[in-house]
Amino acid sequence: MATERPSFELAKGINGLDKIVLRESRGRSAEVYLYGGHVTSWKNENGEELLYLSSKAIFKPPKPIRGGIPLCFPQFSNLGTLESHGFARNRIWEVDANPPPLPSNSSSNGFVDLILRPTEDDLKTWPHNFEFRLRVALGSEGELTLTSRIRNTNSDGKQFTFTFAYHTYFSVSDISEVRVEGLETLDYLDNLKNRERFTEQGDAITFESEIDKIYLSTPTKIAILDHEKKRTFVVRKDGLADAVVWNPWDKKSKSISDLGDEDYKQMLCVEAAAIERPITLKPGEEWKGRLELSAVPSSYSSGQLDPKKVLQ
Ligand code: TA6
User: What are its GO cellular component terms (predicted)?
Assistant: First the structure.
């Protein structure tokens, strides 16, 4: 395997926070803040933003950035004793100058490796040493790939357990014109009903009210079809069995201070995640979870991503 060299620019972002910019010759780009290891932008060759980022996002620690791709680790939501969605999304990450090699199956135009290790304070609330390596890559077809490698570096022989999500906020033209394929007929836990378990109906998912569901044992491929934009986002994932679908709708939006009241119409979270079966690592063990996002002209017809027809 040829040695890959990272190619990125280091720049100053909002409030002077450091950010990494990945660019390719046809104008596609991506941006990652070291604050949170947080992807805040992914643009296509026409310079169109593909991720939703709130105009009210507060780029100031410790408030996580609203929009883009927050990383939920080591805890999803309130499923544990830590702050909601864990602490990785509001820590300052570093560029990892010397990451272990990562085999890639697509040629990338630019990529960067980041690393997060626990602070002394983190060890007080979550007493585990870890190395969380994140590679963000912009592929030759404009696809955005995030690969997380989390290693248990405890020297006391203790294993640890975590839940995880790439809490991706997609930019959509109008939520009522969007449908999601690949999750129909699956079981889900409904966060709006004390995480009770239900089974999804057979049609593609459409949106007309608040939704907050954790779909279980999902296929490796999910499609988000934006009828108005004639654009389909394809989410491919590895090592991440679950998929969360979230839209706060009008009432909940008003209670979220860093989200515009009407912004729920232009966003949809579809989050590749490991929640139902938390990941346990013994010292020296490493887990890998990969997310690949692409945006293609809509050509999927309904049912093409029926989970029964998609290879796991
Ligand atoms: O992933 C869905 C969810 O857990 C919702 O329950 C929701 O409130 C949301 O994430 C946003 O969480 P945050 O902590 O970023 O406000």
Answer: cytoplasm
Residue of the CA atom closest to atom 10 of ligand 1:
77
- The answer to whether residue 227 is catalytic is no
Q: Which domains does the chain have, with CATH numbers?
A: 8-297 (2.70.98.10)
pTM comes to 0.94
Instruction: Tell me what pLDDT residue 95 has.
Output: 97
Residue with tokens 């654009």: 231
Q: Which residues contact 174 (CB under 8 A, 6 or more apart)?
A: 228, 265, 266
b/e sequence 45-69, b meaning 16+ C-beta within 10 Å:
eeeeebbbbbeebebeeeebbbbbb
pLDDT over 90 percentage in the chain: 87
pLDDT reported for residue 310: 44
Q: Whole-angstrom Cα distance, residue 99 to residue 101?
A: 6
